[in-house]
Design a protein that fits this description.
The structure is a single chain. The chain is an alpha/beta fold. The protein has 3 domains: about 110-225, no CATH class; about 230-340, NAD(P)-binding Rossmann-like Domain (Rossmann fold, 3-Layer(aba) Sandwich); about 350-535, no CATH class. Helices cover about 45% and strands about 10% of the residues. It has helices at about 60-65, 100-105, 110-130, 135-150, 160-185, 190-225, 240-250, 280-285, 300-310, 310-315, 350-370, 370-385, 415-420, 435-440, 450-455, 465-475, 495, 505-515, 520-535; strands at about 230-235, 255-260, 275, 290-295, 315-320, 330-335, 335-340, 390-395, 400-410, 460, 490. The protein has a 7-stranded mixed β-sheet with strand order 3-2-1-4-5-7-6, sandwiched between helices. Helix 3 (about 110-130) packs antiparallel against helix 4 (about 135-150) and helix 3 packs antiparallel against helix 6 (about 190-225). The relative contact order is 0.12. Residues about 1-60, about 75-110 and about 325-330 have low confidence and may be disordered. It comes from Micromonospora noduli. It is found in: Membrane. It is a multi-pass membrane protein. Pfam families: Bac_transf, CoA_binding_3. This is Exopolysaccharide production protein ExoY.
């Protein structure tokens, strides 16, 4: 019997097949409502587990024992094999179990969730004490939070140090305070008012710095006591991966809990191998992982892009252990190993909340202002094609989730299979004159404002596509699948850039991925303004 800790291995079930969000040009029309599901992964078998039908062996009676012939002497047990300790790895460490309470709690203790309320409370404390300077203090609070968020001061870091962020903290506080103080001086000629307000701003700044110091110290204590942990998978099993695993086991203040590594099954591994790279998406779900660190120097760009395209892995924080020891790294570090963020490939945290809030505001105002246009389109649809104003069709949304898109019916109903597999309906005789105008000006898309309010779609994003074409285009162009990392949109950067109708799918995917990787609220505003221009020019289908 080996004295090494035993590890139980089982095949990882294949993940549910997810569709990918795509483009909606050239729609057929027909009703199709489907559902997608997946098989439940098999249960784990723990020590002491007995399968159904298992019978405990009968225990012989004392009489049977006396009449039985003496048993032969057992052979001496072989000496346990000597195992050399692996370099840099604690052999007494065991693989942590999945689904721990710490992993669940950590979802509610993100860095920005702890620091942002403390900052707001510190900025509002002088106002609560003095009951003066309401407008100036509120403006200072809002501006400071925005400046902090834009500077990455609410971003979770592996290496938590208050002193590292003091320069950026003080500089941004000074900029926000100066802007508000200048406006206050221009609006109020009284020197006493300006002096009193400036004194309150200085007190707020001091409280913010003090609150940050306390928050960072609390984060360090919580990590050391393992109150806050993020399950982490390391891609690779080489020397860098071994060093990272050793650091994560030894230093809990990084807040990362090593659950194993994924690598090719052939070849020796000094780390607990829990699966191959193909199993990564399933393992992220089964182990409830929040962080994936790529520590394989031989990981090609194609393999890395495949990792980013997987829906479960895309929701994790992705880091890469960079081998560029002789260059300046602007990322983070774990011990002496520099790591860089691969990028926020999905909108999360404040960005996601900001985009969702802007979507709700835009859709609500648009439905109110465009209600006369919607009524005219509904009446025109009735006149042109008879009863049945709307048509519903299954599309693939974010992370491959299906939903029913709503549009004005601009053509007579067709066969269900044809509506799902026919790419373009240009010059189709079933499209009436009114329907053709609605399609050319994109007025048939207006009911999708309701999809936006429901959360199925966003105002700007990759256009959604039918499941048949999602599978077809994903097989033809690998990076096409990466488009569904964000909510699908009513309009998109590809559409306002002239990529509509029968245009290359690869070009659309490049524009959509560029939008995802360079998202900003101003970029959404520009796409909406260009869309309005296209509608008035009737430059659609």
């Amino acid at each position: 019997m080996s004295n090494q800790p035993a590890m139980w291995h089982r095949p990882v079930p294949a993940d549910d097949r997810d569709g990918n969000a795509t483009d909606a040009q050239g729609d057929g029309e027909g009703d199709d409502e489907g559902s997608r599901g997946g098989s439940r992964p098999p249960a784990y078998q723990f020590p002491g587990y007995q399968p159904a039908g298992y019978q405990t062996p009968a225990v012989p009676s004392p009489a049977d024992r006396r009449s039985a012939p003496p048993a032969p002497a057992p052979a001496p047990a072989p000496a346990p094999a000597k195992h050399e300790p692996r370099a840099g790895l604690d052999t007494t460490a065991v693989l942590p179990y999945a689904g721990s309470r710490a992993s669940t709690r950590t979802r509610w203790l993100r860095a920005w969730m702890m620091t942002a309320p403390v900052d707001v409370l510190a900025l509002l404390t002088p106002l609560l004490v003095t009951q003066q300077y309401w407008r100036g203090t509120l403006a200072m609070t809002v501006l400071t939070v925005i400046v902090f968020a834009s500077g990455g001061l609410y971003r979770a870091r592996r290496h938590v140090s208050f002193l590292d962020e003091v320069p950026s903290l003080c500089g941004r506080l000074l900029a926000a305070a100066s802007a508000v103080a200048i406006v206050a001086a221009m609006r109020h000629e009284s020197a006493e008012y300006v002096f009193g307000f400036t004194r309150g701003v200085a007190a707020s700044a001091g409280l913010v710095i003090l609150g940050r110091a306390v928050t960072r110290e609390f984060a360090i204590v919580a990590r050391k006591r393992r109150w806050v942990e993020h399950n982490t998978i390391i891609v690779g099993s080489g020397p860098t991966a071994v060093e990272l695993a050793r650091l994560l086991r030894r230093y809990p203040q990084y807040g990362l809990r090593f659950v194993g590594c994924v690598d090719t099954p052939d070849g020796p591994s000094a780390l607990p191998l829990i699966g191959s790279l193909d199993d990564l998406d399933s393992l992220v779900r089964l182990r409830e992982c929040d962080v994936v660190i790529v520590a394989d120097a031989n990981c090609s760009e194609t393999s890395l892009m495949e990792i980013l395209a997987r829906p479960r892995t895309a929701e994790c924080d992705l880091w890469a252990a960079t081998p560029l020891w002789g260059s300046r790294s602007h990322g983070d570090h774990i011990g002496a190993v520099p790591v860089v963020s691969i990028g926020d490939i999905t909108l999360s945290g404040p960005q996601s909340a900001l985009k969702r809030a802007s979507d709700i505001a835009f859709a609500s105002v648009a439905l109110l202002l465009l209600s006369p246009v919607l009524l005219i389109c509904a009446v025109a649809t009735l006149i042109d094609g008879g009863p049945g104003i709307f048509f519903y069709q299954e599309r693939i949304g974010r992370h491959g989730r299906p939903f029913n898109i709503i549009k004005f019916r601009s053509m007579r109903p067709v066969d269900e299979h044809e509506s799902q597999t026919n790419w373009s309906i240009a010059n189709d005789r079933r499209v009436g004159p009114i329907g053709r105008i609605m399609r050319r000006t994109s007025l048939d898309e207006l009911p999708q404002l309701w999809n936006i309010l429901r959360g199925d779609m966003s105002v700007v994003g990759p256009r959604p596509e039918r499941p048949y074409f999602v599978e077809k285009f994903s097989a033809e162009y690998p990076q096409y699948a990466m488009r569904h990392r964000v909510p699908v949109g009513l309009t998109g950067l590809a559409q306002v850039s002239g990529l509509r109708g029968d245009t290359p799918i690869s070009d659309r995917a490049r524009f959509d991925n560029f939008y995802i990787e360079n998202w900003s609220l101003w970029l959404d505003v520009k796409v909406v303004l260009r869309t309005v221009t296209e509608v008035f020019r009737a430059g659609g289908r």
